[in-house]
From TrEMBL:
Belongs to the glycosyltransferase 28 family. The keyword Transferase applies. It is found in: Membrane. This is Glycosyltransferase. It comes from Clostridium ganghwense. Residues 14-176 form the Diacylglycerol glucosyltransferase N-terminal domain.
Length: 368
């Protein structure tokens, strides 16, 4: 059995989910070949980097335009793809080259292309769309989609309200690496460590203004050690390294789960994947002034589920709010328990339930 996973690198969330699904499927089934492909690298190999660069510029410099487009199109049905025939020809070649029996999409544009491919006489292979944000934007919804994997019951209800049949919607959360399920805040609390741990991620994307005054206040928090993960932002890493006594600075790491497991509280953006990593790690989250449309929806989800706090007010004293929350063990424990309960509401074992449904008549062997 050959499974083709299509994704893109608008941020790294979509790509991360694609690779998580690949790993989970390969871990479960012996005789399954899974390949992950960047849709834009496939269909526009000369220009895909420029596409991502343009997106980054829009997010950082013209987020108001992005949000206006996001809001306007949220409930509006899509028109046909521009250059549809060109895209179909490109994707048909990839499907043939990989001999795909199933396509999983973690990006709306990928689902749109496969939908168009099937509509225009392509092979009738199953299309599985894995939605990577809590909000069900109209761009995720496409004809010829055989199953939707959604983060929560609220996402399922929103899809149903937009005409998607309930029996093809599976609640599975947003797939994250299995390590996040092992390194949890509750495991840390069992060790009875008295010193509080604060984790900050996402500053390299501009979501947190790590100014000197802010950093000094965080550094002075009583009985709190802070870790900042700067990712690929080497400039920020060099600026902060060894500058503050109680702040550890980490550059790029593929062990984020380890730092989440050591923390009592995280400050981060409300990206879908990051949010569900914290849910898996049962780590309460603080989000500071979310500004992108999909992240605002995710932030409302955080508030509604009582799994963290959102700081909306531009005049808020953020260090003071952080100090108050990280020392409120009853509140943190309540948030962690809400996260644990939320995980238990994920009624779908994504890799097994979906694959077994569509390949019930095929001989596929699970790893013993």
């Amino acid at each position: 059995m050959n499974i083709l996973i299509l994704t893109g690198k608008f941020g790294m969330g979509h790509y991360s989910v694609a690779n998580t699904l690949k790993q989970d499927i390969e871990d479960r089934y012996i005789d399954t070949n899974v390949s992950v492909h960047d849709i834009f690298e496939c269909i526009t190999p000369k220009y895909y980097n420029a596409i991502y660069d343009a997106y980054t510029v829009m997010i950082n410099k013209a987020s108001s335009i992005y949000n206006a487009c996001y809001k306007f199109t949220y409930n509006n049905k899509k028109s046909n793809l521009v250059f549809e025939n060109y895209f179909i020809n490109k994707i048909e070649k990839l499907i043939d080259d990989t001999n795909a029996d199933m396509v999983i999409s973690t990006l709306p544009f990928c689902s749109q292309i496969i939908s168009a491919y099937k509509k225009n006489g392509g092979r009738d292979l199953p299309l599985i769309t894995c939605i990577t944000d809590v909000g069900a934007h109209q761009e995720w919804i496409n004809f010829n989609t055989d199953a939707y994997i959604v983060p929560s019951n609220s996402t399922k209800m929103e899809l149903i309200s937009k005409g998607v049949p309930s029996d093809i919607i599976y609640i599975g959360g947003i797939p994250v690496k299995k390590q996040f399920r092992k390194f949890t805040r509750n495991n840390r609390m069992k060790q009875n460590q008295k010193e509080k741990r604060l984790l900050i991620m996402g500053g390299g994307l501009g979501i947190i203004q790590l100014k000197d005054e802010f950093m000094e206040r965080i550094n002075q928090l009583n009985n709190v050690k802070t870790t900042i993960i700067t990712g690929n932002n080497t400039k920020l890493y060099n600026e902060l390294l060894n500058k503050y006594e109680n702040i550890e600075v980490i550059g790029y790491t593929d062990e984020v789960y380890k730092y989440m497991g050591q923390a009592d509280l995280i400050i981060s953006k409300a990206g879908g994947v990051t949010l569900f990593e914290t849910i898996s790690a049962e780590l309460p989250i603080v989000v500071i002034r979310p500004f992108l449309g999909q992240e605002i929806n995710n932030a409302y989800f955080v508030e509604n589920k009582r799994i963290g706090e959102i700081i909306w007010d531009k005049s808020a004293n953020i260090p003071e709010r952080i100090e108050s929350l990280i020392n409120d063990e009853l509140k943190l424990k309540s948030m962690s328990l809400n996260m644990k309960s939320l995980k238990e509401s994920f009624i779908c074992d994504i890799t097994k339930d979906i694959i077994d449904k569509f390949f019930a008549n095929n001989v596929i062997h699970e790893v013993l």
